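Suppose a classmate hands you a notebook page containing two proteins, each written out with its sequence and a corresponding row of structure tokens. How would you begin to make sense of it? This section walks through that situation. The first entry is reproduced here exactly as it would appear on such a page.
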Amino acid sequence: MWWWMLAASAWAAPEMIPADVFEAAKQPDAPTKIEFHMADGTTQHLTDHKGRKLVLSFWASWCGPCRKELPALSAWAKENPNVDVIAVNVDRDRNMADRFLRAVPVELPIAYDPDANALGGYDVTGMPTMFVFDTKGALVFRKVGFNEAAGLTEILTAVQGAK
């Protein structure tokens, strides 16, 4: 009977980034200078969102908890249109991310980071990892992992407390 508790805790735990991706992520760039290459072909920077609160969610196709977090974040973003949300995929192969997106309902702007520039700039070590930035672009919250029971309550609290 104890095995189900172990399985449940493993599902909520963050998944670690594979070593080759982690090594590629060691970049000297400051996070504010990182470019996000969006699925629609545009490029965005953190500074493009000054004046608005921003949530960045780093995810990967191989991340089990991401399958729960991204749909929840999509629903949350619809209810909070005053907050910008970007889901940053870190797969080296975009086809893997696209396959994930066909299987999992996600209605968020998607950025791709196959070279791990943003991943390293934000010191992401596990999936999913979420950041909240205030209207001045200052980091006010960071969370690694996703707990389905708690949902996005911590994100909501962080966004409400951000200037």
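The notebook's second entry, a different protein, reads as follows.
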Amino acid sequence: MLQILSPKAAGRKARYPDSKKALSKKKAALCTRFPAPLEVLGITLAPPRQGKVEVTLAACAICHSDLHVIEGAWGGSLPAVYGHEAAGSVTAMGDSAGDYQIGQRVLITLIRACGTCPC
């Protein structure tokens, strides 16, 4: 299992529905080397930083730009999890994470939005 970051070392606090939960364990399609097939592995995530949320995905798309990265065309640090077109629910929140709520359904996209207009 890959530990992305230790919350104790990072000194972060996050709001989880279960306050005893310190780390979030997920399965992810991980890119561990270029060019190579993705590997589905267990990973451990640190709690979300200030202003960030953790989203458990219900669906995720891999687009052509992700394929370029996986093939090593654009480089990058590894290991990495790709996919910027997704839908899921908020499962943890860092401090000052806005008006999100645990369990709220959200979309993740590469296109940035102001978050205030209904578009």
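A careful reader of the second entry would note: The chain has one domain: 2-108.
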